[in-house]
Amino acid sequence: MRGLLEEFISISKPDSHLALYGFLRRNDRQRMSRVAVEPYPQAPLTKATNDFEQEIMAKLHRSKLPLLLHSADATYFNWEPGEVIPERTLARFYRLSSERFRASIEFDVSFNLIFGQQCHVKILHVLPWHQGNYFRLKTFLQQVGSVVFHLENNIIARIFGRGEISQYPVRGEEWRNVKVAGGYTKLVRLYHRLGFLSDAGTPGELSWLNPYLRKYLLEKAANAGLRLVTSCPQRPITLLTENL
Question: Taking a C-beta distance cutoff of 8 angstroms, is the pair 171, 132 a contact?
């Protein structure tokens, strides 16, 4: 977890690295993006096509966890405002699923200048008749984290995404966008309880940090002059100041 991240945290003037992070985030928001994903095969992945797949398949085999790994090809279409022809980027999407919990999480793997390798979650889905059990969902995510966050060669710094309503239905009345204390929605609050952190600069974006990275950041935060913004006792919600 060293390299750029360590340099990022150890800059002597706190405003410098906060501005750097804010600059990167603002630049990201200027670009527009769409993605087209091929259908996932019915059969789980049995033959790796890259180092990440090879390592995660080996980890699943050693851990004996009841998770299935699927993969599919995808194409990102990115363009700046005013551009007519988008830039195309090929990618691989992954889905880790559990028959026991009837849950799945879909993501791709990308590189971020600050965090390094990261998993960008596209959807976390539980079948409607299996929804409503917090402990089953947490256990499923713990299984996912015990695989993704413990790779030796393809170190994943964080799993992140947006706490927004998807096209998938919920059991019973719609509750996900109901506002609660702090201005968050019930859906975002659920992710907080599951261990995700909110970014004060981008409402709705959530990050689940690698446990080693989280410990490292918390240890360095005071020396770097960062102020922790919390939404409930004992739970740091962001490492950014609110003026970014």
Answer: yes
Domain that holds residue 8: 4-238
The one-letter amino acid at 148? V
Structure pTM? Answer: 0.77
Give per-10-residue mean pLDDT for the chain (244 aa): 37 33 41 85 93 95 94 90 84 95 94 84 89 92 95 91 78 82 84 84 78 78 52 39 29
Q: Look at residue 101 and tell me if it is in a domain.
A: yes
Question: Total domain count for the chain?
Answer: 1
